[in-house]
Design brief:
The protein is mostly helical. The protein has one domain (4-304): Ribonucleotide Reductase, subunit A. The protein is built from 15 helices and 4 strands. The chain has a two-stranded parallel ribbon. A two-stranded antiparallel sheet has the order 3-4.
């Protein structure tokens, strides 16, 4: 049995695939898989009907922060950036290079997904509060995606963002699903980036690419985006009770499980930073769970033995599915079906584990203090 601690590059290569050309990079960004970031669309009329008057005071403070735009000059590469790229990139092993490229491509796709969604909402609604918010968030995500793309261009692997927008499939989500999933995506993005930044701040010798020096101020954009969705959900409390709590549990588990499996396809990336993938992921889960108490009435018990065993099992099944797909033929199809059913069963068992209950605080917003 393959365990998450014994992944080797043959297994990793099956899961992430090799990127050797710009065509490969663009194909990877366009492809939709269970683990890859997706592009979304939603019900614009429902978005237009949102009312945030009950959280107006906190909303107006947040809008002033967006308007102040303290990151307007942040996403500029300096001379040191170029020198570090020239010095450090040749030192990467071929295997490490592939993991880092996978990280950059999936990160860019995720950031650009937010940019497109927010911009489409902005264009299709008249609600002045939501329109203003979406304008600011699309601005931020566009900067993030463009900055990552510059680093891909250092490898001659830049993504054609216009082509990506036209060719990648879109998934329709109801607004409430957008709120749950995007809130978590933004907050877990903050937790991921700040955990990496703090680690490399303590161990600068492990900073193998200059992009990580930008992560602290960058992830504060992600944090504020999450705050925006927290305010929207708290302004519509029906989204946080009754049967919707079941949906919150689903999205918590889906986001955590996707991150865990995807991160365990990049063991060299985390080892280069001084992490083990499992330790890194549980630190990110811990931070995200603490933050999400501002809005979600439940949180996953990430220390439950069944939760940890289930997450490891999902990694094993993901590897088994990739190996079966590569094998092909009838046996390969049977293997894919078996591993897919195993993943559904494991996810279901994880879903029904006990959760922790939270009392929502009277003050909604929190500060990025991690």
């Amino acid at each position: 049995m393959t365990t998450t601690a014994s992944l080797d590059f043959d297994h990793v290569e099956l899961l992430i695939g090799n990127v050797e050309s710009a065509a490969d990079a663009n194909a990877k960004a366009v492809r939709n898989t269970v683990l890859s970031p997706r592009f979304y669309t939603t019900d614009f009329a429902a978005m237009d009907r949102l009312n945030i008057e009950s959280v107006r005071a906190e909303w107006d403070v947040m809008m002033k922060e967006y308007e102040g735009d303290n990151n307007h000059d942040h996403f500029q590469r300096d001379a040191q950036f170029a020198e570090e790229v020239k010095t450090l990139m040749p030192q990467l092993s071929p295997e490490m290079r592939q993991e880092f490229l996978d990280f950059l491509i999936s990160s860019l796709t995720s950031e650009f997904s937010g940019c497109i969604l927010y911009n489409e909402i902005r264009k299709n609604i008249d609600n002045p509060d939501i329109k203003q918010l979406m304008t600011y968030m699309a601005r931020d995500e566009s900067r993030h995606a463009g900055f990552i793309n510059q680093s891909l261009k250092d490898f001659d692997l830049g993504i054609d963002l216009g082509q990506l927008k036209r060719t990648k499939a879109y998934t329709f989500f109801k607004p409430k699903y957008i709120f749950y999933a995007t809130y978590l995506s933004e907050k877990i993005g903050y937790a991921r980036y700040i955990t990496i930044f703090r680690q490399l701040e303590r161990h600068p010798d492990k900073r193998f690419h200059p992009i990580f020096r930008w992560f602290e101020r960058w992830c504060n954009d992600e944090f504020r985006h999450g705050e925006s969705f927290a305010l929207i959900m708290r302004a519509h409390p029906h989204l946080l009770r009754g049967g919707n709590v079941l949906w919150i549990r689903f999205f918590l588990l889906a986001v955590y499980a996707t991150m865990y499996v995807r991160d365990h396809t990049r063991p060299l990336l985390h080892e280069a930073m001084g992490f083990k993938s499992t330790e890194y992921d549980y630190e990110v889960f811990r931070i995200t769970s603490e933050i999400a108490r501002q809005v979600f009435p439940v949180e996953l018990d990430i220390d439950h033995p069944g939760f940890r065993a289930g997450m490891s099992r999902l990694v094993e099944l993901s590897i088994a599915h990739a190996k079966a797909k590569e094998r092909g033929g009838v046996l390969g199809l049977i293997g894919q079906a078996t591993s897919a059913l195993g993943a559904v069963w494991t996810f279901g068992r994880l879903y029904f584990l006990p959760v922790k209950r939270n009392t929502l605080p009277s003050q909604i917003r929190v500060q990025p203090a991690w």
